Amino acid sequence: MSHNGAACLLKDGRVAVAIEKERLTKVKNDGGNDALAIAYCLNAAGIGWDEIALVVQNANFGSFAYGNHWYRGARTIPEGVPVETISHHLAHACSAFYLSPFDTAAVLTVDGCGNAFEDCMDLDGAILPERPEGEMAALWFEKDSYYAASGTGIQSVFKDFSPLGRFQCDYPMHPDTTRHSIGGVYAGASRYVLGSTSDLGKLMGLAPYGQPGGFRHRIFDIRDGRLFVDYGWMQDFRARMHSAADFKARFQYFADVAHMVQGEVERALVELARARHALHPSPNLCFAGGVALNAVANTRILQETPFEQMFVPPAADDSGLALGCAYHGWHGILTGEPARHDGSPFLGRSYDGDTMQIERALQVAGDDLIITRPADPIEAMAELLAEGRTVAWHRGGAEFGPRALGHRSILADPRRAELRDYINAQVKFREDFRPFAPAVLAEDAATYFELDRDSPYMLFVVPVREAWRSRIGAVVHVDGTARVQTVRRETDETFHALLTAFKARSGIGMLLNTSLNRRGQPIVETPVEAAELFRDTGLHALVVGPYLVRKQP
């Protein structure tokens, strides 16, 4: 029930369904009360509260002192259903380890702010470099935690806390909550540069436009394995973004700020990961918390620390807390049979068999349309994409997490560099500096990218091989990198088939893949929402269920 609220339903230790609240309310990063998300899960599974064995919950602030019938609105949990509350960083850690392919691993949680020290229930056995006492315990919050995980157990190794500091300084880039967290600094910088913290990935996309020598401030200090923010540098930054016009007029200044902050975040994470590895060495690292969505930093952690393998869950942000809570309930409270997730990010309900919804979607898509039911939708899509069309694809259950991975996607030909500007301006209505990601056949990934591992959730940024940069311009960022999604036949046979069909026409087993939404809106959930987006934007075609919908030329 934090921001990015979500609910997840486990059946016999397996994910039956999961949904982010924002997909239902259409309010970006919506959180708090969980009644809508819970109702969605129960309805999708076709069950009632009498079949629920346990509820496990978490939110950033507070431990539900007012009881379980009210949390930012009336809740729906009836009397008699057991309810457990776990701490924030533990929920993140569970979401990473129990979704990972590892039997044993170290788990690192890094974010802007977790639970207060007095609300943490995972302190036993952990190294606590600083223990707040008395009334201060309510004013110190989790900033990074490190765990040892094996089988069905997760044990705290090291937990670090930071005091609140929002009102201690009037600098425009000051973090919202904790004084000494990586996520807090990143959020403060995002607000300074972009005027919002609604999509922190924008800052990562802007950073490569910055000049390496633009600013040389040292933001973070690592002392005795602990991370601190050095606030002296903030006095030099008192000219935050005031409007879109202001951002464009001072683009290079803001790009230089983003470059400095991104570089310092990468450095801090690498040093932090090295220090934690020394406390509990493991070849495998699971990484969670909102900071783990920084795909550039993820690549550096894997390359520059002793960890040999790394897993970042598709919902590393607070939406993933729902998965972590559920798995903790199964393994840690109900002590059910060992169960691990199969890796699928497609956890929403499917509408493919809902004829009424799809027909309604076709009605709202518009009047002057060409609607067909092709014998082979994959071949029809590949043909349109090879012709330079932008295609919206709505199928199966929605992705859980902020990245569209082929179920709620906008697809295009990566060879056509002009499509990047077209989609930003005519489809997404977003800033023109933002890049697009390539989805690529896993077996071909090393041909185009300096990539020696799977990247199924778009959470690693790697260099594009020099020979290909000019040939796939729509998905190459200004610094020659790309945030890659690898697609394997055994994990997504349909998407793999589309990439294969496109390769047969183009010679390239790759497509531009971006989320099916527009600026400021969550990814669409229903066929009707997909049709409305198709109607109101410059998309050329929509594939929903068995139907292919095109606009008249």
Question: Would you kindly provide a written description of the structure presented here, covering whatever features stand out?
Answer:
By secondary structure, the chain is α/β, with parallel strands linked by helices. It folds into three domains: 6-85 and 321-333, 2-Layer Sandwich (Nucleotidyltransferase, domain 5); 90-312, ATPase, nucleotide binding domain (Nucleotidyltransferase, domain 5), CATH 3.30.420; 355-551, Carbamoyltransferase, C-terminal domain (DHBP synthase). It is 29% helix and 19% strand. It has 15 helices and 21 strands. The chain has an eight-stranded mixed beta sheet with strand order 12-21-20-13-14-19-15-18, with helices on both faces. A five-stranded mixed beta sheet has the order 7-6-5-10-11. A two-stranded antiparallel sheet has the order 1-2. Helix 3 (88-97) crosses helix 9 (321-333) and helix 4 runs antiparallel to helix 7. The chain is globular. It starts with 5 loop residues before the first strand and ends with a strand. The mean pLDDT is 94.
- CATH-level-4 superfamily name of the largest domain: ATPase, nucleotide binding domain
**Low-confidence parts:** none
Structural class: alpha/beta
The counted number of beta strands is 21
CATH topology of the largest domain: Nucleotidyltransferase, domain 5
Number of domains: 3
Main sheet characteristics? 8 strands, mixed
Q: Helical region count? A: 15
Order of the strands making up the biggest sheet: 12-21-20-13-14-19-15-18
Beta content comes to: 15-25%
